[in-house]
Write a structure and sequence with these properties.
The chain has 258 residues and is of the alpha/beta class. The protein is built from five helices and 17 strands.
Length: 258
């Protein structure tokens, strides 16, 4: 919640889609923005689109799809606003709209953006944030084969360091991945380039989801809990802390540069 974010005092806050759950009811957007104002007036609020931002209205008994209009009207984000990038220190953050993952224009942009990041000597870390997970053990959902087929080869090719996702209401983290397989079974202290780290943190406040059993070999950690991530960007390492909303730690992960 906003009080927890304020207590952490981050340089900025990432929200991984499904922002207000207004689902077309515009007053809910307004109530939500008033609720988070104590946080957003002092901490930059950087978002990516989720499926609940792809809205429809009911007008005179008829459904009318308005897409991302409510979201785009309320936030001022870089680039197209549906997908964009920004730098913080030695890290390049890439907001990918996974709700529209097959969009050819966005995919051209994504590959160009990742390629440019890897050519830029000032960029040590490439971090993608999107709504839908590629890999998941959420009961009734599981992996997203179409998303894996579309974007995982790009994340592999350009050795994306970290992919942050929401959508599933719990915490889940895979071991570093390449070509759909884990590259190590270590719990932390990874070498940069060893694999892309995929993390799901969708426990922001809605009802929590169950997991499927048994736990697959690629899954390093999972917990049915409300929580958040604290990511610390340094030149020599990336530190990811998964925390519960009471600020106790689930796990600590380090990725170190060679």
């Amino acid at each position: 919640n906003g009080k927890t974010v304020l207590a952490e005092r981050p340089r900025f806050h990432l929200l991984l889609g499904d922002v207000s759950y207004a689902n077309g009811k515009q007053p809910i957007w307004d109530d939500y923005l008033k609720q988070i104002e104590p946080m957003t007036r002092v901490i930059p609020f950087m978002l990516t689109l989720g499926n609940h931002e792809n809205e429809k209205l009911v007008v005179n008994g008829q459904e009318q799809r308005i897409g991302y209009a409510s979201y785009l009207a309320r936030f001022a984000l870089p680039g197209t606003e549906q997908w964009y990038t920004f730098d913080y220190g030695p890290a390049r953050f890439v907001a990918f709209n996974s709700d529209d993952f097959a969009n050819p224009e966005q995919l051209v942009w994504l590959e160009k953006t990742l390629a440019e990041a890897r050519r830029d000597t000032k960029v040590n870390w490439v971090i993608v944030f999107q709504h839908h997970p590629l890999y998941s053990t959420s009961k009734g959902r599981g992996d997203n084969p179409a998303l894996i087929q579309t974007v995982a080869p790009l994340y592999d090719r350009y050795k994306v360091d970290l992919v942050l996702c929401g959508h599933d209401h719990h915490y889940e983290r895979q071991y570093p991945m390449r070509a759909g397989q884990s590259t190590t079974l270590k719990k932390t202290d990874y070498r940069q380039g060893e694999g892309t780290l995929y993390i799901v943190e969708g426990g922001g406040g809605k009802s929590l989801y169950d997991f499927t059993d048994p736990i697959p070999a690629i899954c390093a950690c999972r917990e049915k809990t409300n929580g958040y991530l604290r990511v610390t960007v340094e030149h020599g390492q990336l530190v990811i802390e998964a925390k519960r909303t009471n600020r106790s730690r689930i796990e600590l992960i380090r990725i170190k540069r060679p």
